[in-house]
Write a structure and sequence with these properties.
The chain is mainly alpha-helical. Among the domains are: about 130 residues, no CATH class; about 220 residues, Hypothetical protein af1432 (Orthogonal Bundle), CATH 1.10.3210.10. It is globular and about 85 Å long.
Length: about 625
């Protein structure tokens, strides 16, 4: 392996991330924006080819080989992973690439009689497993994908902290190894997410015991003597910090009163301890964060009232900067309103509640639109997925439909443009099909006759448009995978991609503005004959909206096949080529009646015109939306 080439891969991948959502700060017109995107994606195509060459020459051979890695190989791969990974703020370049490399390293390290290498590699597995876990944790409620990362991280961390045994610890070769062991003694708690509610009570206490044990190391003369150069102040600070945060999300894990008393005690100790320190990391531990920790723990333990807590949260939110994108400000910006939402989740909203939620939702769109660089994207999306999970539609505020579309435009404009284009194509095909074969629409929107189909044409077309606009909303939860242009996807990424229809479905069906549109998200990758596509357990043939979902699928594929900017980095097809593709899948992948429809002269002519002008119009709409929301 060649370090220079591997560094180049990281550099090019970072550049691709930036190009996929170019800034509009210096762009002055919609036409310039469209041309800028076209140039960006032509450049992405070039960079992706360069990266693929690096992968084929230096990376895939190592990953796919069964040969035992040398110490030099291991060191090269470790350096490569360190270039890609930033565990402090989750501004990572390629999390999955890191994880698959680290798995290879772990297997190699087990064959070596070198404790230092083994501990270093296990530590990288803990970090990369955590990052993969957090990224996949957004696939709520489909947790089976992320549990394997949690388990791999826990197993590695347990192996590392087995060296806390005093006899083993004393024999560790250097300060580097001892530091990793001590850090993991507290960091392992971050991987203790449990979805099996039958064992949650046992695991709650395990969280506390792990952190208390790690905290106690800072007062043990043996460890103090063995690791005199270790930052014991930071260790104590971080242990108490983790303890204080156990009750995040309105005590979602249900710590009992006795456990809450321990948490409160350590929160107070944390605040007192931090007030005595004068070091760089304390600067981020602001008075608002201290009070947020304490008041949340006092509230969930019943020591202050809901009204007192809500008043505090509103006051803090008003002080939070809307221009600061540091990790700590992003944390506070999202944590405060999410905790507020959870306090009122099952209540009748007061006027103050509604005002606060509307203020947050509107500022969230502005905050997302002004994200200065893609480095914080993973961190930001992790919080946005929580907003989606707990969102409350408020009269007078953004609907879930509006909020999700705005955030899609902010975080990945090409997918937003794609959604607009698919909506145009879906409405066009629906209109022509409705005129030719109106009987196919019986059952849609509860319609019972051909006469009603014709009388409610506008309503059906509006329904078709909305279904299409929101069909890809589930991709917001896996935005980094969507943005993986620089290489082929790994199996785990395909697994995540295949979940996005269900993610969209689960989100859309929760809210009044979108519950009737969820079927489009669920079914738009399912084959017409139900024998291909995904989800496996969804049957298009049993769906009363089959005609609209089938039309959406054809429109979705049409845009993907013919777009040379945001969706396809190979040569785009023309309409004739696309129709030939449809013919190959007629009656299997694609509805036979829709393939026939595209041979109609009027339909062909209208789609040809739309391919000339509609996408440009959609880039203009996106530009004006971005300019308006970012200002």
């Amino acid at each position: 392996m060649h370090n220079r080439s591997l560094s180049k891969y990281a550099e090019l991948t970072q550049k691709i991330r930036e190009l996929s959502a170019p800034s509009i700060a210096e762009i002055t017109s919609a036409e310039e924006y469209r041309d800028s995107l076209l140039r960006s994606f032509m450049r992405i195509s070039e960079l992706s080819k360069a990266n693929e060459d690096i992968l084929k020459e230096h990376i895939y051979p190592v990953l796919e080989s069964n040969r035992i890695l040398s110490k030099d190989d291991i060191e090269d791969i470790r350096n490569f992973c360190n270039i890609l990974m930033d565990p402090t703020n989750m501004g990572n370049i390629d999390i999955t690439m890191i994880y698959v490399h680290v798995q290879k390293l772990v297997n190699a390290a087990k064959e070596m009689d070198d404790i230092r290498t083994k501990i270093a590699v296990l530590d990288m597995l803990v970090q990369s497993a955590y990052l993969m876990f957090v990224s996949m944790y957004r696939l709520y409620p489909y947790y089976e994908i992320c549990t394997k990362y949690r388990d791999a991280g826990i197993d590695a961390a347990l192996e590392i902290i087995s060296y806390l045994d005093k006899e083993k610890f004393e024999k560790l070769p250097d300060d580097f190894c001892k530091e990793i062991v001590l850090i993991n003694s507290r960091y392992i708690y971050a991987l203790f997410f449990w979805f099996d509610r039958a064992h949650i009570e046992e695991e709650r206490q395990k969280d506390i015991d792990i952190l208390l044990r790690s905290l106690s190391l800072a007062d043990d003369p043996f460890y103090l003597q063995q690791a005199p150069n270790y930052d014991w102040q930071y260790h104590k600070f971080r242990c108490m910090d983790y303890l204080s945060c156990l009750t995040e999300r309105n005590n979602i894990n249900g710590y009992n009163q006795k456990q809450l008393e321990i948490i409160i005690e350590n929160t107070k100790k944390l605040i007192e301890f931090s007030n005595q320190l004068d070091c760089d990391y304390i600067a981020d531990f602001t008075d608002d964060i201290k009070q947020q920790y304490l008041n949340r723990n006092l509230y969930v333990s019943g020591k202050i009232s809901k009204d007192e807590y809500k008043t505090f949260l509103r006051e803090v939110f008003d002080r939070i900067s809307r221009e600061d994108y540091s990790s700590i400000n992003i944390y506070l910006y999202f944590d405060v309103p999410i905790e507020y939402i959870l306090t009122v989740q099952n209540d009748e909203l007061t006027h103050e509640d509604k005002e606060f939620l509307i203020k947050f939702y509107k500022s969230l769109v502005h905050y997302a639109y002004n994200l200065p660089t893609p480095e914080q994207l993973t961190y930001l999306v992790s919080f946005i997925s929580d907003v989606f999970r707990y969102f409350i539609e408020v009269e007078g505020g953004p609907s879930f439909k509006d909020l999700s579309l705005n955030l899609l435009a902010a975080l990945h404009p090409p997918t937003y443009v794609h959604s607009l284009s698919v909506a145009v194509f879906t409405v066009t095909l629906t209109k022509h099909l409705l005129h030719k074969e109106p009987e196919r629409f019986i059952g849609v929107l509860g319609i019972e006759s051909v006469e009603d189909v014709l009388n409610r044409e506008n309503e059906i077309l509006k329904y078709a448009e909305d279904i299409a606009l929101l069909h890809d909303v589930g991709k917001l939860q896996i935005i980094e995978t969507v943005m993986t242009y620089a290489r082929r996807l790994f199996d785990t990424e395909f697994d995540a991609i295949k979940v996005h229809p269900r993610l969209g479905y689960e989100l859309l069906r929760k809210y009044p503005s979108t519950k009737d549109l969820a079927i489009g998200a669920l079914g738009h990758h399912k084959w017409f004959n139900d024998k291909g596509g995904y989800p496996d357990d969804f049957k298009l043939s049993e769906c009363k909206e089959e005609v609209l979902v089938s039309t959406l699928m054809v429109a979705d594929c049409l845009d993907a096949a013919t777009d040379s900017v945001g969706r396809n980095y190979k040569k785009a097809l023309n309409l004739d080529d696309y129709i030939r593709e449809l013919e190959e899948g007629k009656g299997t992948r694609y509805a036979d009646y829709l393939v026939d429809l595209l041979h109609d002269e009027d339909v062909y002519r209208e789609l040809s015109n739309l391919l000339e002008v509609a996408r440009d119009d959609n880039y203009k709409k996106t530009y004006y939306l971005l300019r308006e929301e970012a200002s």
